[in-house]
């Protein structure tokens, strides 16, 4: 019996190592995420494993950026209504635009946001990861032009959809690998009962219409402490991940 138990323990150890290995290989941000055991692992979209965390302590930069946005937005909207004069011209333009999107369906909101921000913001290359320090850019800073990199653009899209009234449960910020440049990229994922849309640096990709994705997802976060880990990214040429035409 002791031999059987030893073999069972070794098999369990190998299984645990197999689960942890992709997270460790993906970098320190993944390794810092919550453990898989006991967290209610479930199959998620794009062939992912979704793990619920009690908070976003594994992602302090995201948590701080989200808290700053959720504090700033109602104050900015109130200032817009009261014409208090404290808003910059570009902030006023952005607030008026997102306020006009509230009655549109999610796919139309996403399409309008992509086009509007492309005109409003001129995207710049992200600095190397080693040179980025400090907090993630806040929406006023992005609008002011102090940061127009890929991360800032993804955050601006996320913030714009939140400000337009899209249910935060339908939104995720995805850290991914660009399949064309092999660089780290940031994608906003919109998931509702009727739509699955990826907002990438190249525009919009409808995940339910086939076609090759321009990114391989690594992990993602949302507003409520959801930590999503992608051990086997689903690509468009995978029959299990193909959507309907």
Salient structural properties:
disordered C terminus; 245 residues; globular; disordered N terminus; alpha+beta; 8-stranded antiparallel β-sheet; C8orf32 fold; 18% strand
Helix content: 25-40%
Radius of gyration: 20 Å
Please mark out the parts with pLDDT under 50 across 5 or more consecutive residues, or reply none: 1-43, 51-58, 232-245
Range of strand content = 15-25%
- The average pLDDT is 71
**Which secondary-structure class do the elements indicate?**
alpha+beta
H/E order of the elements?
A: HHEEHHHHHEEEEEE
- Total of DSSP H or I helical runs spanning 4+ residues: 7
Largest sheet: 8 strands, antiparallel
Shape: globular
How many separate domains make up the residues?
1
* Annotation, overall tally of beta strands: 8
> What name does CATH use for the topology?
C8orf32 fold
Spatial ordering of strands, largest sheet = 1-2-8-7-3-4-5-6
